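Lab meeting notes turned into a lecture example. A postdoc, R.K., suggested we walk through two folding results consecutively so the class can see how the record format repeats. The first protein's sequence and structure tokens come next.
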Amino acid sequence: MTTERDRVISITLSEAEWRAFVTRHPQPVDWLRERIRSEVQEPTSETAADDDQAAPIYNLQ
């Protein structure tokens, strides 16, 4: 049995906000997924300073 779970993020945007966002990022789901992956791959100052503890690995599919 695996403990791996998919996660869902839901946010509320006005129609104007949504249209402005999609105008800048025509593939919003792909853009958000890549931003999240980029964020979790960058070492934080805490992780970089603490060599005794490994950084968590996130599997976003």
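The second example is placed directly after the first for contrast:
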Amino acid sequence: MARWATWSWILGAVAGEVVLMQACATAPLPLPEPGPPPAPVEVVEAPEPAAPPPVYVRVTGSSLNVREGAGTSFKVVGTTKKGERLLVLGEDGKWLRVQLTPEQEGWVHGMYVKPEKTCPPDKNTAEILNQPDVVLRPAGARVVLEATVSALGFVTAVTLVENTTGDDALRREAESELRALRFSPPVRNCKPQPFVYSYTRSF
């Protein structure tokens, strides 16, 4: 009887240990208390770049033909009179693209117009008035261009200085970005001055 009692006690102890281990294994762990919600973040829209100021010219000839393109071979689409004020939209060599009406544009020769009389203070530097939409890429190869900028702030000619990309399509992309720029030229004795601008574009 003593041996049986001892064996029963051992079985009971083992059984109790197994039950205890099962209880420990199946008991759910306490869930962490939720933390405070994240603070709201204020979203601020980036300001739009300032639009370049308009450029106006006055007609100096008694009557000036406005043509469909930059050249005398293009047909006449309108005429202007001396003293008439025209908004300049672009430039191609000695020709200016102007706005006749809100619905009509044309080209006039720069010999027969002059910028409106204003006398800005002298300055030795030029500023870019707008920024092109540029697709940024990791710096590597590059295209270097030089632009001739007129006294009206338009790019009139572009010269390739260097193209380490070996890809002419990238050269054309850089030139297109450069030609889209508008400048405020240097000023000397009340007169805006033409200048040369160097443009480096990394690809």
